[in-house]
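User: You have something folded?
Assistant:
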Amino acid sequence: MENSLQRATSVLFLAGVMLGCDNKEGLQPQAHYANVYQQINHRMMTEMDKMKDTNDPDNDFSMMMRMHHQGAIDMSNEELKSGDNRL
């Protein structure tokens, strides 16, 4: 179950990223590891992979959501630091 939840979380995250991207402004793809948001995502997923399953679904879900939302906070802080508000 742990890996299924992680996969679902990753798929939802990537779907959101893909839906938010267009090439109307001449955006160019970056190398995967050159993208700071992907680096943050990988750190988040590494932390989630290290989590020990407690066989308590409520606890496990809460812990994974804490890690997932911390990743979102980290990405938001990066955007605040380096974004230029073009949208």
Notes: The chain is about 70% helix and 0% strand. Residues 58 and 64 are 10 Å apart (CA to CA). The two ends are 38 Å apart (CA to CA).
